[in-house]
Design brief:
single chain; alpha/beta; Rossmann fold; DNA polymerase, domain 1; 2 domains; six-stranded parallel β-sheet; 10 helices; 8 strands
Length: about 220
Amino acid sequence: MKKLVIFDLDGTLLNTYEDIAAATNYALSQYGYPTHSTPVIKSFVGNGINKLFERALPEGKKTEENILKIRAAFIPYYNVHGADFTMPFEGIVELLYTLQRLGLKLAVASNKYEQATKALVETYFPEIEWCAVFGQREGVPTKPDPTIVEEILEKAGISNKEEVLYVGDSGVDMQTAINAGVEGVGVTWGCRSREELESFSPRAVVNTCEEILQIVTSL
């Protein structure tokens, strides 16, 4: 059985896309840039908000200056409205409670900026005793760089990587698991296709939380 399960946040634990889209479109509109539908913005998610804004800006406007302007408008709005429509995916709360009752250590590794990552985890999973909740921080490379996973392993006191499972919804997550040397599981309810997930040859690609529990508790 695994001893530590690390979860991505957006698209894995929480369906955050309506709120991300609303905040992104608000920030874009402040500077007169075209807005996007939620499915389009969903396709931009996965590499941190600066990359999200770069993808959302029109061609010819994808400058560092413009990205930072959009970020400055996005963050205050999202800090207030980031939980307006966000909800845990089906079965996630029950899965986390079960894993906690089994004595596993649980952690979050997200490319969302850390303030929002911690706030959402505290809002939706207040009774889960996380050993670590890390978002994107200044000076720490974003996933798929393995630094965030390595920090979690150190904080959890886990040295045997065979005891670790990393769960995410994108190719970024699957590559993170590969780079960190831990087993990865892809979930199909997030922002990327089964085909993208399977192209990284993870331990499994699952459709339900029950399948994650089976993997975690298998010998």
